C-alpha cells in the first residue's frame, strides 16, 4: 500500500501521475504554486478527460504567503441569456446527456487566466506546455478512463465528433494504449497564443457557438462573450482550533464546515476509529448539513442563502443534539453526478492552492464541440424545472454546484489542503480525512487509504444507500444496518467512494502528501 510522500519544500498531488509531474516540472522551472496549479489543471483536462476538461468548471482556494489570507475564485459558468423553463416544456427534467444538457458556459479557461494574472509568475503559454504535449503526442490511457469509457460506450458512440476521439476505430481503447487528442492540442495552442478571450470571444469561441447553433443548442455568442468568473470571500468556520475554508455558494462547501462543527461537540478520545460510533456519527452529521443545503443552495445572486446562520457554532450544537446514536436519520438525498478531479500544490515560499474541476457526469454532456476537441459539460442539467424550486432554471444563473476544494489553517498558515472527486461524497470524504488527520493523528496517505463510505445516491440510482468498502467489516456493517442505514458493501478500494488527495504541512514545515490508491494519481515532493 502507498506510503505518504514527504518533501522539505514543495508538494503536488493530483488524481493522475502525469498531471502531478507537470506541476512539479513547472515548480522546477521557477514557477510558483499558482503557476503549477494551472499546469496541473490543464494537464488533467487532457490526461483525465472523463473527469474534467476545457469545457468544464473549476473552483480555487488560494493562500498567498505575502498576503497571509485565503482567497477564492469561482470558476463556474452561468446559463445563457435565453435560458428558460419553457424551453423544456413537457419534460420532467433537463436531459443529462446530449446537446440539450449543455446549459452553462464553461468557466475553467477564465479561471486559469484569473489565477495567473493575480498571482502567477509565468505566462499562460508556459504552463500549458505539458498539456499541449500530452494532447499532441499522446499518453498511456489510464485504467480509470478505460473503465469509464467501457461503462459509457453508448453515450460516447451517440455523437460522431465524440466517438471519433474517445472510441478510435469504434473500439474502447485499452488501458496503457497511446491516447492522442490532436484537435484538443490545437485548441490549447490557440488559447496559449491568444489568451482566455480566444475561448470566449475569439475564433475558437465562434466555432464552439457555431456548432451549438447548428444543433439547436441553448448557448449563444453573447453568453460566452459576457462570461466572467468571480473572486469571492471564502466560507469559513473552525474545527479543534483550525480555521476551515471552503468556496461559498453556489458551492456546497459549507456543508463540510457544518459537519465538522457538528461533530466537534463529540470527544473523539472516547470513539474508536473505524467503529460503528465513528461512522454513524459522521454520517448523521453530514445528513443534517445536507438537509439545509438541499433546501437553499443555488446561485446566491438569485436567492438569500443564510450562510452565517448555518455556520454559527450554536446552531451546529443544536444539530448535534438531534443525532441519535442508535438510529439513522431519514433524509431524501439529492441525485448528483460524481466525476471530478481534485488537486493541490504547495511551494517553497508557503503559497498554497487547493482546487477542483469537473465536467459533472463522466464525459460531461457526451458532446465534443465539432473539431475543437472540447468535451462540453452537462453541469446545467442540474437546474430544476420546477418554478417554485430555489435552484430553478433562469437566465444568467449558476446552478447548485458540488465542487468544493478545502483548506485548513493553523495559526494563520496553511496546515491541510484536501478534497476529492465524488459529488455527494465530497463533503463525506473531506470530513473523514479531517477527523483522521486531526483527531487520530494519521498522515495524509494513511487517512486516504483507510476504508471509506458514501451515503446517498448518484444519478441513475433508485434508492439512497450507505455504500461501505468491505474492509469496514461485517460487524460494523451489521450494526449500521440495524440502526436503519441501507447498507450495501462495495469493493475493498472502490472508486465509488471518491478519489481523494491531501497535503499536510507539519510543524517542521515539511510537506506531506497523499494520493488515493483508488485512482491513477501521485504525490510528488522534494
Number of strands: 22
- Rounded average pLDDT: 95
Radius of gyration: 21 Å
> Overall 3D geometry?
globular
Written overview of the protein:
A seven-stranded antiparallel β-sheet has the order 1-21-20-16-15-9-8. A seven-stranded antiparallel β-sheet has the order 7-4-3-12-11-2-22. It has a four-stranded mixed β-sheet with strand order 10-17-18-19. The model has no long low-confidence stretch (mean pLDDT 95). Helix 2 runs antiparallel to helix 3 and helix 13 crosses helix 16. The longest helix has 21 residues. The chain contains 19 helices and 22 strands. It is globular. It is an alpha+beta fold and 526 residues long.
Please sum up the structure shown:
The chain has 19 helices and 22 strands.
Give a quick set of tags describing it:
526 residues; alpha+beta; single chain
Mind sketching the topology for me?
Elements: E1 5-7, E2 11-14, H1 17-28, H2 33-47, E3 57-64, E4 69-75, H3 108-119, H4 124-127, H5 129-137, E5 139-140, H6 143-151, H7 153-157, H8 160-166, E6 178-179, H9 182-194, H10 196-200, H11 203-214, H12 221-225, E7 230-232, E8 235-239, E9 242-246, H13 254-263, H14 276-296, H15 307-310, H16 313-320, E10 335-336, E11 339-346, E12 352-360, E13 367-368, E14 375-376, E15 406-410, E16 413-420, H17 425-438, H18 444-449, E17 453-458, E18 465-469, H19 474-482, E19 487-490, E20 500-505, E21 511-515, E22 522-525
Parallel strand pairs: 10-17, 18-19
Antiparallel strand pairs: 1-21, 2-11, 2-22, 3-4, 3-12, 4-7, 5-6, 8-9, 9-15, 11-12, 13-14, 15-16, 16-20, 17-18, 20-21
Helix pairs in contact: 1-2, 2-3, 2-5, 5-9, 13-14, 13-16, 13-17
